[in-house]
């Protein structure tokens, strides 16, 4: 998979050089390139924003730099991911879907957002997915891009050392929250590890974990019990 990110804050994406995405890059499982949107400005002030038509607070990102940037960075058929508060909710099923794509291009906006014609123009030759991390407001798309990239990259074959851990995670195929986890020491600040986990009885342990997942989901995310969240697992494409 190839991932390109276009932003006015390239340094915001430095975490992609670390940990999971960093190791995936070293293994050759993904290629990542971050681009400064101002590369595609042509005025002395390298202008990327202007006042909104129709009035209102704040500034809007101009379409011209974005159009030139996407022409240069996104080949026909690539998937353009545009983080926005007005996007479709990002969740594990969408992460699995994006993990099947050969190239993802992230358009990280700032200010009050990107001129809407940019996504409309891009949709003529790209798959465009406008996504939201959740119902709160950030100052730009970079944090969302980092989150989406991490959620997608970890699903690619060969990225996670223990692929089995994917099977039991929260928001997995069964759509329930993950059970609580424990490790040594067996007693810590007068708090003990549940006896069942020390029993060696794998059937009892599996049953306890399933019950804990259900209990947590009922208590914290009852919405997951009715939503259509099952079967998110979409086999990612083989690494490019
Ligand atoms: N994904 C996602 C997001 C964002 C987000 C994403 C991209 C941009 C670009 C610019 N802004 C600032 C802004 C724009 C419009 N209205 C209010 C603030 C962004 C916010 N906020 N909250 C989320 N869950």
Spatial arrangement of strands, main beta sheet: 2-1-6-5-7
Spatial extent as radius of gyration: 21 Å
The total domain count is 2
The share of residues in helices is: 25-40%
Ligand kinds: ligand JFB
The string of secondary-structure elements, in order, is EHEEEHEHEHEHHEEHH
What is the number of helices? 8
Mean model confidence by pLDDT: 92
Broad CATH class of the largest domain: Alpha Beta
Q: If classified by CATH, what would the architecture of the largest domain be?
A: 3-Layer(aba) Sandwich
Strand percent estimate: 15-25%
Shape: elongated
- How many strands appear in the DSSP assignment? 9
CATH topology of the largest domain: Alpha/beta knot
Low-confidence segments, ≥5 residues, pLDDT <50? 229-240
Estimated structural class? alpha/beta
Q: Give the CATH superfamily of the largest domain.
A: SPOUT methyltransferase, trefoil knot domain
- The first-to-last residue Cα distance is 5 Å
Largest sheet: 5 strands, parallel
Walk me through what this model shows.
There is one protein chain. With 240 residues, the protein is an alpha/beta fold. The chain has 2 domains: 2-153, Alpha/beta knot; 164-226, Orthogonal Bundle (Trp Operon Repressor, Chain A), CATH 1.10.1270. The protein is 30% helix and 18% strand. The chain has 8 helices and 9 strands. It has helices spanning 19-26, 63-73, 92-98, 117-122, 142-153, 164-167, 202-220, 223-226; strands at 2-7, 31-36, 49-50, 60-61, 79-89, 103-107, 127-132, 187-188, 191-192. Strands 2-1-6-5-7 form a 5-stranded parallel beta sheet. Helix 1 (19-26) links the parallel strand 1 and strand 2 (31-36). The protein is elongated and about 70 Å long. The termini are close together. The model is unreliable at 229-240 (pLDDT under 50). The structure holds the ligand N#Cc1c(-c2ccc3ccn(Cc4ccncc4)c3c2)n[nH]c1N. Residues 83-85, 87, 109-110, 112-113, 131-134, 136-141, 144 line the site of the ligand N#Cc1c(-c2ccc3ccn(Cc4ccncc4)c3c2)n[nH]c1N.
């Amino acid at each position: 998979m190839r991932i390109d990110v276009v932003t006015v804050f390239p340094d915001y994406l430095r975490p992609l050089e670390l940990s999971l995405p960093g190791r995936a890059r070293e293994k050759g499982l993904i290629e990542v390139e971050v681009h400064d949107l101002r590369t595609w400005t042509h005025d002395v002030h390298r202008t990327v924003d202007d006042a909104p038509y129709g009035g209102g607070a704040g500034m809007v990102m101009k379409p011209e730099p974005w159009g030139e940037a996407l022409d240069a960075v996104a080949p026909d058929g690539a998937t353009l991911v545009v983080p926005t508060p007005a996007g479709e909710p990002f969740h594990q099923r969408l992460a699995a879907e994006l993990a099947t794509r050969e190239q993802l291009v992230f358009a990280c906006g700032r200010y009050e957002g990107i001129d809407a014609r940019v996504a409309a123009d891009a949709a003529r030759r790209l798959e465009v997915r406008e996504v939201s991390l959740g119902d709160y407001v950030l100052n730009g798309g970079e944090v969302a891009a980092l989150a989406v990239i991490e959620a997608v990259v970890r699903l690619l074959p060969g990225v996670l050392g223990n692929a089995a851990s994917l099977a039991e995670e929260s928001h997995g195929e069964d759509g329930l929250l993950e059970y609580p986890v424990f490790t040594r020491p067996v007693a810590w600040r007068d708090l003990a590890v549940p006896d069942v986990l020390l029993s060696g009885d794998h059937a009892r342990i599996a049953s306890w974990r399933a019950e804990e997942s259900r209990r947590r989901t009922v208590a914290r995310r009852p919405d997951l019990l009715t939503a259509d969240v099952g079967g998110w697992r979409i086999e990612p494409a083989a690494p490019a």
